[in-house]
Amino acid sequence: MSRSTLSLLCLAALACAAPGAEGRRGGPVHRSEASRVYDARFPDPGSPLDRRDLSSSERSGAVLVELTYAGDPGTGPVRATLVRPGGEGKPGPGILWVHWLGEPATSNRTEFLEEAVALAQAGATSLLVDALWSTPKWYERRAIDRDPDDLSAQVVSLRRGLDLLALERTVDPDRLGLVGHDFGGMTGILAGAADGRPRSYVLLAMAPRFQDWMFYDPAKHPTDEAGYRGRLGALDPVDALPALEGAALIQLAEKDFYVPSGLIDEWRRAVGGRGEVRVYPTSHAMELAPVRKDREDWLRRTLGLASAPQSELPARAKE
């Protein structure tokens, strides 16, 4: 064996063993300068994902796998549900779904489960994750000084979710999407900006800045408010829009106490030609039927899925 051949083999081995090799799949990520900034701010640690499948079931032709994976190194395992098409077929889109902080019954990975099952029938694979606010009374019990660190760790855990999703045999890693509601949208947009792979976003009922939401509890005060606001400001979701590689549909509500009209106008100004802002006559829960229909249509169109026949739409989406 020649010395040059041996050198090439060594380089190949090092590449396979490099941090993050397990979790990166697909073509090279062509990053803008803005995306590089977020990649450096929320780096993927590249450690093993340590996926543990806990159970499997079938539902309406889809396969549901309950699992855990290793998120940010400073946090515990992330609980998640993988929803993939049943049977064999060509790899299709992969979608990461991040839930809201709202009604206890849906402040967890089940919020978008019905939609994920419906899209599996069209060939999409979904990963629905529990976020840190799925813990009961998280907002009231959180240590406010830790907010910037905890939210940053959540962003890294979501990046790791994109890694896990892209490794699925049913997923085309060049057709990734992300859906996030409330805090799920705010951390999701940062994760997408840092990762660089998602090509489609739907972001619901989110504020442009975390500080718009972190001071509702009058009993909580940061030790150093100026420093806290500065660290939190570095995470502002609205600033991440130029770093996204895909188009974003931002869905907002007319009757949203948490995202009033002034913040809606801010999103309109910020989105520019990077996507669309649509406002609906509903509340922060975004439960109006056209919200779901528009979201599904957007994902189908931007990720290359066939349109749903009218007969297959859920009854509440036909209203």
Could you explain the architecture of this structure?
34% of the residues lie in helices and 21% in strands. The protein contains 10 helices and 9 strands. A hairpin with a 6-residue loop joins strand 2 (62-70) and strand 3. Mean pLDDT is 90; it is low at 1-22 and 311-319. The radius of gyration is 20 Å and the shape is globular. The chain has helices at 3-17, 33-41, 113-120, 138-141, 147-166, 183-195, 225-233, 261-271, 289-303, 315-318, and strands at 52-59, 62-70, 77-85, 92-98, 125-129, 171-181, 200-204, 247-253, 275-280. It is α/β, with parallel strands linked by helices and 319 residues long. The protein has a single domain (29-318), classed as Alpha/Beta hydrolase fold, catalytic domain (Rossmann fold, 3-Layer(aba) Sandwich), CATH 3.40.50. Helix 2 (33-41) packs across helix 6. The protein has a 9-stranded mixed β-sheet with strand order 1-2-3-5-4-6-7-8-9, with helices on both faces.
Topology, please?
Blueprint: H1 3-17, H2 33-41, E1 52-59, E2 62-70, E3 77-85, E4 92-98, H3 113-120, E5 125-129, H4 138-141, H5 147-166, E6 171-181, H6 183-195, E7 200-204, H7 225-233, E8 247-253, H8 261-271, E9 275-280, H9 289-303, H10 315-318
Helix pairs in contact: 2-6, 5-6
DSSP summary, beta strand count: 9
CATH topology: Rossmann fold
- How many domains, in number, for the residues? 1
Q: How much helix is in the residues?
A: 25-40%
Alpha-carbon distance between the two ends = 70 Å
Radius of gyration (Å) = 20 Å
Q: How would you summarize this macromolecular structure in one to three sentences?
A:
The chain is of the alpha/beta class and 319 residues long.
